[in-house]
Design brief:
It contains 14 helices and eight strands. The chain has 287 residues and is an alpha+beta fold. It has three domains: 2-79, TATA-Binding Protein (2-Layer Sandwich), CATH 3.30.310.260; 112-224, Hypothetical protein, domain 2 (Endonuclease III, domain 1, Orthogonal Bundle), CATH 1.10.340; 236-286, Helix-hairpin-Helix base-excision DNA repair enzymes (C-terminal) (Endonuclease Iii, domain 2, Orthogonal Bundle). A six-stranded antiparallel beta sheet has the order 1-2-6-5-4-3. The chain has a two-stranded antiparallel sheet with strand order 7-8. Strand 5 (47-54) and strand 6 (57-61) form a beta hairpin. The structure holds a DNA duplex (13 and 12 nucleotides).
DNA sequence: CCCCAGGTCAATT
DNA sequence: AATTGACATGGG
């Protein structure tokens, strides 16, 4: 990867293992939307980003070098060598096919509190509606970010969520879980720091101590909010695709988790994203 | 009318 | 320890 400063933009050249549609359409983040041909725009960590692909390079529009280094370098997990990880995951026909389709996937390192709330909302829900609910939440009580004539909204702070009426989100029974999580973080400001400092198993126990955060949601938070790549979230789609591709019979979530831990090890979470992306693109072939 | 969606909880066996 | 129904809402 070569980083070039150009007027108000950052340009990335010689990119491998990086494709916008793979990154933003694999169900890991909910706040980026397609705003053009090979262009996505969204808000993360309080910053607006418009990123596009042109020919062999990627452009981060209106981005300073400081912002790139302090925000986006970590966000896009640029320090990790996905080529190496793909090589170590590769071996069976299923994984090779999944990697071939989602070759440009990267695990985004998202803001922890946003990830907690987002995946609480995700439970027993579909991706378009998850996006709508989160966007409505940000508009309801997130800090305004004004860029020229455009208005964007940061993901709200815990206190802001506690101080508004979230019933307008139509998130249903998840309201009480959202409020409880916001209250937990608001009343114990070191809660997030403890999570950041903890190992995977300790962090998982802490997360699951919150009402409405169970096995799967905590695994997603571990992976997308804490960078724990040994976490392997199993939702209905992962359940189906693992049964079909690897087990070739009905099996339990626990069996799948144990299998993944052995087969994919410390890169389970990245393997999971390749498989999940593959599953989303082959819904009609799954039963 | 039905069933399902990046599930979790509590009651019941 | 494993199984089951309720939980809100919107879309097919």
């Amino acid at each position: 990867m070569v980083i070039i400063k150009n007027n108000n933009d950052i340009i990335l050249k010689d990119m491998r293992d990086f494709e916008l549609s793979h990154i933003f359409d694999c169900g890991q983040c909910f706040r980026f939307r397609k705003t053009g041909e090979d262009e996505y725009t969204g808000v993360a960590k309080g910053h607006v980003l418009r990123i596009s692909k042109s020919e062999d390079s990627f452009v981060l529009h209106n981005t300073t070098e400081d912002d790139f280094n302090s925000v986006w370098l970590d966000y896009f997990d640029f320090k990790r060598d996905y080529g190496f990880i793909k090589a170590s995951l590769s071996g069976d026909e299923c994984m090779d096919k999944a990697i071939e389709e989602g070759f440009g996937i990267r695990i985004l390192r998202q803001e922890l509190f946003e990830t907690i709330i987002s995946f609480i909302i995700s439970q027993s829900n579909n991706i378009p509606r998850i996006k709508t609910i989160i966007e409505t939440l940000c508009r309801l009580c997130g800090k305004k970010i004004i860029l020229g004539t455009e208005v964007y909204y940061a993901f709200p702070e815990p206190e802001a969520i506690l101080n508004c009426d979230i019933s307008v989100l139509h998130a249903g029974y998840r309201d009480k879980y959202i409020l409880n999580a916001a209250r937990t973080v608001y009343e114990n400001p070191s809660f997030l720091d403890e999570l950041e400092a903890a190992d995977t198993q300790t962090a998982k126990k802490l997360l699951m101590s919150m009402n409405g955060v169970g096995n799967k949601v905590s695994d997603c938070i571990l992976l997308f909010g804490l960078g724990k790549t040994d976490s392997f979230p199993v939702d209905v789609w992962m359940h189906r695709i693992m049964e079909q591709l690897y087990f070739r019979k009905k099996c339990s979530i626990q069996e799948i988790s144990e299998y993944a831990a052995v087969k994919f090890g410390e890169y389970s979470g990245i393997a999971q994203q390749y498989l999940f992306y593959y599953a989303l693109n082959h819904k009609n072939e799954l039963n």
